[in-house]
Amino acid sequence: MARSSARQEEVSTTRLVTEIVEHRRSSFPDDEVAWSPRANTQVSCDKDAVRVVLENLLDNARKYGGGRVELTDSMRGARWRLEVKDAGQGFAPGDTERLFEPFERAEGTGVEHGSGLGLYIARQLARQMRGELTAASPGPGHGAVFALELPLAREAARG
């Protein structure tokens, strides 16, 4: 798999996420998407790929988390981290990596639509940008946190 994308560019994290969230709010006005940027910085990324990843995470929050989601960002060393938190169905901690396998969906959720490819594709896109996509949950019924990490633009330039 290629480790970088030809369409990578330096972008403002606050501007990019705000644009995606505003589009989401206009498309799904009943969803509650809270976004309070804290770590405005520049990352090296493919903006379209970030849009796909974040839309996928917001779609999952809509399906499994009741449409209410909180986005927070922070700096972690030479990386920017965006967390997508919901208070929905969650999952068993031992199932974390299985969620990223192709054609997998959360069990026993009552959700019948979707191909089970969204998280797999989102993780592949994150990795193509030299980033990572992870998930965590304290267990069923306790919500989930999905986190996208991307390299800061200055670190990406160092290669």
Measure the end-to-end span: 17 Å
Q: Please provide the count of β strands.
A: 7
The global form is: globular
- Put simply, the count of helices is 4
Q: What summary fits the major beta sheet?
A: 5 strands, mixed
State the share of residues found in helices, binned by percent. 25-40%
- What are the secondary-structure elements, in order, as H or E? EHEEHEEHEEH
The mean pLDDT is: 88
Radius of gyration: 15 Å
Low-confidence stretches: 1-5
Structural class: alpha+beta
Order of strands in the sheet with most strands:
2-4-5-7-6
Approximately what portion of the residues adopt beta-strand conformation?
25-35%
Which key features would you list for this structure?
single chain, about 160 residues, alpha+beta, about 25% strand, globular
Show the helix and strand layout:
Blueprint: E1 9-12, H1 13-27, E2 32-35, E3 42-45, H2 47-64, E4 68-76, E5 79-86, H3 118-128, E6 132-136, E7 144-151, H4 153-158
What does this structure look like?
There is one protein chain. It is built from four helices and seven strands. The chain is α+β, with helices and mostly antiparallel strands and 159 residues long. It has a five-stranded mixed β-sheet with strand order 2-4-5-7-6. Helix 1 packs across helix 2 (47-64) and helix 2 runs antiparallel to helix 3 (118-128). The longest helix is centred in the middle third of the chain and has 18 residues, at 47-64.
